[in-house]
């Protein structure tokens, strides 16, 4: 993991997490949401959404030159996705750890991809890779009125 991510562990951050179409089709939505919920992060945005091609292209614009890019856009737009925004101290790096390596066969058991997937092209979930991208992607996938700021009843039981 990048040093700047480790250095940012103390900050309250937002991250964009998405159950990809394979995760929705395979009935893994509850399982995946549950892992972030049980960890103790705060859900601030959630919706089922059919992603238009233009949005998929904007989201993955950094990968445009990759040979798998056309297949990736087809994959992400092939059915509904579940869009989530999560907030918490150090949530960006922690969510990446919960998700596991990009290639599910390399991902550790106990991670979402390590437990629930076998192929990079069907790796069930997305998570932002930096605090900057967490903000950028949350703003890209959610309109302002779609996010909720609230205080979970469990807050004092998660942080002293
Ligand atoms: P992530 O941040 O772990 O999701 O990985 P990347 O940002 O590198 O890539 C974004 C997504 O593109 C991955 O989650 C995969 O769905 C897909 N992807 C990445 N590399 C490959 C590849 O080599 N082949 C295929 N088919 N898809 C890939
Ligand atoms: Mg990425």
UniProtKB/TrEMBL annotation:
Q: Which residues bind ATP?
A: 20, 68, 96, 102, 113, 123
- Species the sequence originates in: Durio zibethinus (Durian)
Q: Which reaction does it catalyse?
A: a ribonucleoside 5'-diphosphate + ATP = a ribonucleoside 5'-triphosphate + ADP; a 2'-deoxyribonucleoside 5'-diphosphate + ATP = a 2'-deoxyribonucleoside 5'-triphosphate + ADP
The protein's name: Nucleoside diphosphate kinase
> GO molecular function terms here?
ATP binding; nucleoside diphosphate kinase activity
Q: Where is the active site?
A: 126 (pros-phosphohistidine intermediate)
Q: Is Translocase among the key words of this record?
A: no
EC numbers, comma separated: 2.7.4.6
The keyword Transferase belongs to this UniProt entry's keyword annotation: yes
Similarity comment: Belongs to the NDK family.
Biological-process GO terms, alphabetical:
CTP biosynthetic process; GTP biosynthetic process; response to hydrogen peroxide; UTP biosynthetic process
Domain called Nucleoside diphosphate kinase-like: residue spans: 12-149
Q: What general EC class does the enzyme of this chain belong to?
A: transferase
Q: Required cofactors, per record?
A: Mg(2+)
Keywords, A to Z, come to: ATP-binding, Kinase, Nucleotide-binding, Transferase
